[in-house]
Amino acid sequence: MPVDIEQRASYEYGDSLLHLCDARIKITLLMVYLITTALLPVGAWAVYLLMGGVLLIVAVLSEIPASLLLKRALLLEVPILLVLIPQIFLKTGNFIEINPWSGFAFSLSLTRLERVASLLVRSWLSLQFAVIIMSATRFEDVLAGLRACGLPRMLTAIFGLMWRYLYVLLDEMHNLTQARRARSSTLQGSFKQAGGSVWWRAQVTGGMAGMLMLRSLDRSQRIYQAMQARGYDGEIRSEAAAIPLTKAQYFSIAAFILAGLLMVLLANGMAA
Amino acid sequence: MISINDLSFAYDDGRMAIEHVSLDFKPGEKAALVGPNGAGKTTLLLHLNGILRGQGSVVVGEQAVDDRTIKAIRARVGLVFQSPDDQLFSSSVFDDVAYGLVYQGEEKIVIREKVAQALEVVGMPDSQARSPYHLSLGEKKRVALATVLCMQPEVLALDEPTAGLDPRGRRGILNLLADLDQTLIVATHDLEMVREIFPRVIIMDAGRVVYDGETQAALADRALLEAHGLIG
């Protein structure tokens, strides 16, 4: 049985301060945080710590269990880890040879080590912050927030439809695999090799993929027609986005940008 | 044949789909599950061959549905989903009907024979090379039935077999069901079909069994039918 879209998505229901905050403010805060983190120089550990402090405050304000937020961010961090870790074993810059036992030796680049550690910390801070904001903001509000922040209409429409159709695709896939499971049986007392050959399984899976594509196209078309019938014109509308920002909200946006700028200047000043 | 004991099931969102359901079905029995939308009929059917597993037990023959027996149970209980689009996933009718047999490791010649027989029974003998995607709803429903008939299960569990069909398509399915020898458990809103084919009816509402008995008596009880949303 299909599950409610919000429940399957990353959104966590709640009424914390972060949940109640205007999506436009949250999106701006996220953008400022991401850009600031990306602009920080290698080895600015004190500023990383400050950024970590900001992250901690936002996490506390979200009232979402820390274990859940950490799990989501670490899952996203895995590919970055896989790409970065081998870098520290390259023989570049200042490196040392390590020979733990006879016949086995490897090099450790100290230059790369600091660079990789900095990148890992910054990527984790960015991912963790994005996870917190996304967990406390409904996707429709994220889209409306992005649109309000100036993202072109076409792009927000593409993001919105991709999101919607992702779950259409998942529903279709769930139904097809359920039907396959229901008929994947073995006869009791039979000595026949059940399960079919690898080639046959591959053919079945290929057929299912084709069927999934055809049916998803059909269903997506029906959804789009239903959206058009109800007046969809490519513009994401949100009640919150229709309300003009208050002076205090404009002030907070300016404060975020200023704080981000200060962090970058501070980090570069320390590095110089 | 099938014994369901104190079965309860809740979906991920915590909503109880079925609660404390206990039922027994004899071999060859024809029983209809009726009730309003969301009564738990489909959920109950999905338990019969282990697609869903709730608290309590489901026993088919002498085998309780569990991890060890699940593959054998699925050979004994053929499940046909409400939407034939959910049932048919291959690029040709032959491949779809043959799926279960190939999985069971049957010989090619046996597979061809059983597929032809099953399609003959459902009145679609010339459709083997056609794509299920291009069939009409009535034809898809027939082919969906053939996908389990070819495995010769002892029990057929069908979800809304006549839903969405035109009168001729509906009549064709009714005649087909009336002629089947297997134990038949059908979830439906089609009370005329229930009256015509099923001597036993089980009425479900809000996940519970509220009536289990003779069809004629149930359908004559207007208050019972109204109370559970079976007539307007």
Automatic annotation (TrEMBL), chain A:
<feature type="transmembrane region" description="Helical">
    <location>
        <begin position="38"/>
        <end position="61"/>
    </location>
</feature>
<protein>
    <submittedName>
        <fullName>Cobalt/nickel transport system permease protein</fullName>
    </submittedName>
</protein>
<dbReference type="InterPro" id="IPR012809">
    <property type="entry name" value="ECF_CbiQ"/>
</dbReference>
<dbReference type="InterPro" id="IPR051611">
    <property type="entry name" value="ECF_transporter_component"/>
</dbReference>
<feature type="transmembrane region" description="Helical">
    <location>
        <begin position="250"/>
        <end position="271"/>
    </location>
</feature>
<dbReference type="GO" id="GO:0043190">
    <property type="term" value="C:ATP-binding cassette (ABC) transporter complex"/>
</dbReference>
<keyword id="KW-1133">Transmembrane helix</keyword>
<dbReference type="GO" id="GO:0006824">
    <property type="term" value="P:cobalt ion transport"/>
</dbReference>
<feature type="transmembrane region" description="Helical">
    <location>
        <begin position="73"/>
        <end position="96"/>
    </location>
</feature>
<keyword id="KW-0812">Transmembrane</keyword>
<keyword id="KW-1003">Cell membrane</keyword>
<keyword id="KW-0472">Membrane</keyword>
<dbReference type="InterPro" id="IPR003339">
    <property type="entry name" value="ABC/ECF_trnsptr_transmembrane"/>
</dbReference>
<dbReference type="Pfam" id="PF02361">
    <property type="entry name" value="CbiQ"/>
</dbReference>
TrEMBL record, chain B:
<dbReference type="InterPro" id="IPR003593">
    <property type="entry name" value="AAA+_ATPase"/>
</dbReference>
<dbReference type="GO" id="GO:0043190">
    <property type="term" value="C:ATP-binding cassette (ABC) transporter complex"/>
</dbReference>
<dbReference type="InterPro" id="IPR003439">
    <property type="entry name" value="ABC_transporter-like_ATP-bd"/>
</dbReference>
<dbReference type="InterPro" id="IPR017871">
    <property type="entry name" value="ABC_transporter-like_CS"/>
</dbReference>
<keyword id="KW-1003">Cell membrane</keyword>
<dbReference type="InterPro" id="IPR027417">
    <property type="entry name" value="P-loop_NTPase"/>
</dbReference>
<feature type="domain" description="ABC transporter">
    <location>
        <begin position="2"/>
        <end position="231"/>
    </location>
</feature>
<dbReference type="Pfam" id="PF00005">
    <property type="entry name" value="ABC_tran"/>
</dbReference>
<dbReference type="GO" id="GO:0005524">
    <property type="term" value="F:ATP binding"/>
</dbReference>
<protein>
    <submittedName>
        <fullName>Cobalt/nickel transport system ATP-binding protein</fullName>
    </submittedName>
</protein>
<dbReference type="InterPro" id="IPR050095">
    <property type="entry name" value="ECF_ABC_transporter_ATP-bd"/>
</dbReference>
<dbReference type="InterPro" id="IPR015856">
    <property type="entry name" value="ABC_transpr_CbiO/EcfA_su"/>
</dbReference>
<keyword id="KW-1278">Translocase</keyword>
<dbReference type="GO" id="GO:0042626">
    <property type="term" value="F:ATPase-coupled transmembrane transporter activity"/>
</dbReference>
<dbReference type="GO" id="GO:0016887">
    <property type="term" value="F:ATP hydrolysis activity"/>
</dbReference>
<comment type="similarity">
    <text>Belongs to the ABC transporter superfamily.</text>
</comment>
<keyword id="KW-0813">Transport</keyword>
<keyword id="KW-0067">ATP-binding</keyword>
<keyword id="KW-0472">Membrane</keyword>
<keyword id="KW-0547">Nucleotide-binding</keyword>
